[in-house]
Structures are given as structure tokens and as C-alpha cells.
């Protein structure tokens, strides 16, 4: 059975990635993973006008490096010294599917797209 890597992100930031307004995800930890990732919105906190607890899009993680002050506009948050910028590319919207997210990178069965 094949799997995809996935990452849970709070709303409205997950929607910002889906729309291409946010092309960097900022984390306190780095990843060496490069490749396809499913961006999921967290179930909580719940927003009335946002999909919460769903798969939203697929992107490629193409790099991970220490955050720079100039990353603020691409990350949609203020600079945080010592944090890491996960650089995303090739963002593609997918049909949303309910999902139970997890912390960190996690595996999702390819069956979710059936």
C-alpha cells in the first residue's frame, strides 16, 4: 500500500497555502524530507467559514533552512529567530477529504484519494 506524507496546519494558514498566498511553512524543527506532502487543516480551533479537519492541497517541500527576516511575507507570520522555513512549491488544490491529523509529519494512505 502506498502512502503520502502529510502535515496538519491551523486555519487560516492552511487556506493561505492552498491559495498560494503562503509558500513557506514555519516550524520550530527542521525536516530533511523533500517531496510531495498533503497539507491538511487541523480540526481545532474550528473556524465557521473554513474547512477544518480536511485535506486541502498537495505541495512539494523543496528546501528547509533557518528562517530569515525576509521570509515574513512568504510565511504570513513575523520572523522567529531559530525557527525553520519549509519552502513549498507546486501547490495543487485537491478534493477535500475528512482526515484525522497528527503532530509532525505523518503518513496517509493513498486510498484517501479514491
Describe this structure as you would to a colleague:
- The chain has a single domain (3-99), classed as Archaeosine Trna-guanine Transglycosylase, Chain: A, domain 4 (Roll).
- The protein is 10% helix and 39% strand.
- It is mainly β and 114 residues long.
- The two termini are 13 Å apart.
- The chain has a six-stranded mixed β-sheet.
Provide the spatial order of strands within the biggest beta sheet. 2-5-4-3-1-6
Total DSSP helices: 2
Parts with pLDDT < 50 across at least 5 consecutive residues = none
Rg (CA only): 13 Å
- The total tally of domains equals 1
What is the helix/strand order?
Answer: EHEEEHEE
- Sheet having the most strands: 6 strands, mixed
Helix content estimate: under 10%
User: What is the CA–CA distance across the termini?
Assistant: 13 Å
Mean residue pLDDT = 95
CATH class: Mainly Beta
Can you give keywords for this protein?
mainly beta, Archaeosine Trna-guanine Transglycosylase, Chain: A, domain 4, 6 strands, about 40% strand
Quick take:
The chain has 114 residues and is mainly beta. The protein has a single domain, classed as Hypothetical protein (Archaeosine Trna-guanine Transglycosylase, Chain: A, domain 4, Roll), CATH 2.30.130.30. It has two helices and six strands.
Secondary structure layout:
Layout: E1 3-9, H1 13-19, E2 24-27, E3 35-41, E4 55-66, H2 72-75, E5 84-93, E6 106-109
Parallel strand pairs: 1-3
Antiparallel strand pairs: 1-6, 2-5, 3-4, 4-5
Amino acid at each position: 500500500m502506498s502512502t503520502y506524507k502529510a502535515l496538519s496546519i491551523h486555519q487560516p494558514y492552511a487556506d493561505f497555502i492552498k491559495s498560494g498566498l503562503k509558500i513557506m511553512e514555519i516550524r520550530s524543527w527542521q525536516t530533511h524530507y523533500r517531496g510531495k506532502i498533503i497539507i491538511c487543516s487541523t480540526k481545532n480551533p474550528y473556524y465557521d467559514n473554513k474547512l477544518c479537519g480536511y485535506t486541502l492541497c498537495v505541495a512539494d517541500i523543496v528546501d528547509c533552512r533557518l528562517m530569515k527576516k525576509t521570509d515574513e511575507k512568504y510565511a504570513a507570520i513575523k520572523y522567529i529567530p531559530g525557527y525553520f522555513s519549509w519552502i513549498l512549491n507546486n501547490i495543487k488544490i485537491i478534493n477535500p477529504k475528512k482526515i484525522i491529523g497528527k503532530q509532525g509529519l505523518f503518513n496517509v494512505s493513498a486510498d484517501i484519494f479514491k
